[in-house]
């Protein structure tokens, strides 16, 4: 319900509701018998507008039927009160809604068809200059349709840019982490090969000095031997610590990936035993979650996407579930095909299923 009212409070929807309220005020000039019928028609049109504007993506058929019924109700009101002059405003509202849902090549012919019927109704009512009225109304419809179309394109471009930016941030996080791991490994090698080698040589020389009768009893020689041994052990411990990689920071990368999306909300759990050091494997996990986020938002209208990454034997198990509801049967498109290709490239396995609530469940197994 919160989602419903949030959508209804969007600026374009509020503008439409304000326009419908203004049309409602114009009905007060009608006599009471006509007022009741006209108010009922306007209420029906308003209800259809609300269903399309704020209804869930799961109501696809309901929203389609509502979009087709809106011009029929508007034209019926025009036929019933042709001389009132405000009912045709409903056609402008419907045009804006049509261009927000359908592509222009589909919306434009349907709008023209509705205007042809509108013209015939005005001619039947013996109004003066019906063509002029239709052309004026068509101008307002074109303005409303173009404004909504370009606003929708700008919104889609903005969302796409945000997703691309999130993708870059997530990839940069992985690359930076990988670069730090490479630098740690380089430093570890330098310490082992250079400092470790020279300290070993120093220790052997001190041992040789300690074997000399004149120096065997010197406290300084014994102290130097002890310090050399301790320093060599310390360097070995540092080298081992540098080589013990913590793995790439998947948590930060995945959070950056989901940040621009208003929904679904990412619910992420990564087991402490999971350490991904291979950038290719980390990139595979990143792309799987990215595709799951896109599918959940676009096709299932999910509010939450749960991602669980854990160690299972010698493998890393990735389980992804959403709380949405798939429309129809589960079909594998290009996105799922891309998932399988990435999993195959790292010699893993992928299994798809649906949850008891109808959401999508993805289980991927990758070699650790």
Helix content range: 55-70%
Question: What is the alpha-carbon Rg in Å?
Answer: 35 Å
* Amino-to-carboxy terminus distance: 43 Å
Summed up, the helix count is 11
Query: How many structural domains does the protein architecture include?
Result: 3
- Order of strands side by side in the largest beta sheet? 1-2-3-5-4
Kindly report the average pLDDT value: 82
Poorly predicted regions are none
Number of strands: 5
What is the overall shape?
A: rod-shaped
N to C succession of SSEs: HHHHHHHHHEHEEHEE
Transmembrane segments: 12-29, 35-52, 64-82, 102-122, 134-151
GO molecular function, one term: kinase activity
Protein name: Signal transduction histidine kinase
Organism: Pseudoxanthomonas sacheonensis
Explain how this protein is built.
With 368 residues, the protein is an alpha+beta fold. The chain has three domains: 2-127, no CATH class; 176-243; 247-367, 2-Layer Sandwich (Heat Shock Protein 90), CATH 3.30.565.10. It has eleven helices and five strands, in the order H-H-H-H-H-H-H-H-H-E-H-E-E-H-E-E. The protein has a five-stranded mixed β-sheet, covered by helices on one side. Strand 1 (265-270), helix 10 (279-300) and strand 2 (304-312) form a beta-alpha-beta unit. Helix 10 runs antiparallel to helix 11. 27% of the residues are buried. The model has no long low-confidence stretch (mean pLDDT 82).
């Amino acid at each position: 319900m919160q989602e419903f009212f949030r959508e209804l409070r969007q600026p374009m929807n509020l503008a439409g509701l304000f326009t419908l309220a203004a049309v409602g005020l114009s009905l007060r000039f009608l006599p009471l018998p006509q007022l009741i019928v006209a108010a009922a028609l306007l209420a029906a049109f308003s209800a259809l507008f609300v269903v399309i504007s704020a209804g869930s993506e799961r109501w696809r058929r309901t929203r389609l039927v509502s979009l087709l019924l809106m011009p029929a109700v508007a034209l019926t009101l025009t036929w019933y009160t042709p001389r009132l002059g405000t009912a045709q405003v409903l056609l402008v509202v419907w045009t804006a809604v049509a261009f927000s849902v359908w592509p222009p090549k589909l919306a434009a012919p349907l709008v023209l068809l509705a205007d042809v019927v509108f013209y015939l109704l005005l001619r039947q009512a013996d109004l003066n200059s019906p063509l002029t009225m239709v052309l004026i109304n068509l101008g307002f419809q074109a303005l409303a349709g173009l404004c909504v179309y370009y606003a929708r394109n700008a919104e889609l471009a903005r969302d796409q840019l945000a997703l691309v930016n999130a993708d870059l941030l997530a990839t940069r996080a992985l690359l930076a982490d990988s670069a730090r791991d490479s630098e740690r490994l380089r430093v570890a090698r330098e310490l082992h090969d250079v400092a470790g080698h020279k300290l070993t040589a120093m220790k052997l020389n001190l041992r040789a000095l300690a074997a000399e009768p004149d120096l065997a009893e010197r406290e300084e020689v014994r102290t130097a031997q002890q310090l050399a041994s301790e320093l060599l052990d310390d360097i070995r411990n540092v080298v081992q610590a540098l080589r013990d990689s913590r793995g790439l920071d998947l948590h930060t990368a995945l959070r950056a990936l989901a940040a621009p999306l208003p929904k679904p909300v990412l619910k992420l759990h990564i087991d402490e035993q999971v350490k991904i050091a291979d950038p290719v494997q980390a990139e595979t996990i990143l792309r799987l979650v990215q595709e799951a986020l896109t599918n959940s938002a676009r096709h299932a209208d999910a509010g939450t996407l749960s991602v669980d990454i854990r160690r299972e034997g010698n493998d890393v198990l990735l389980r992804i579930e959403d709380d949405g509801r798939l429309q129809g049967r589960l079909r594998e498109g290009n996105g799922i095909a891309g998932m399988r290709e990435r999993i195959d490239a790292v010699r893993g396995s992928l299994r798809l299923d649906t949850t008891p609530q109808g959401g999508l469940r993805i289980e991927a197994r990758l070699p650790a």
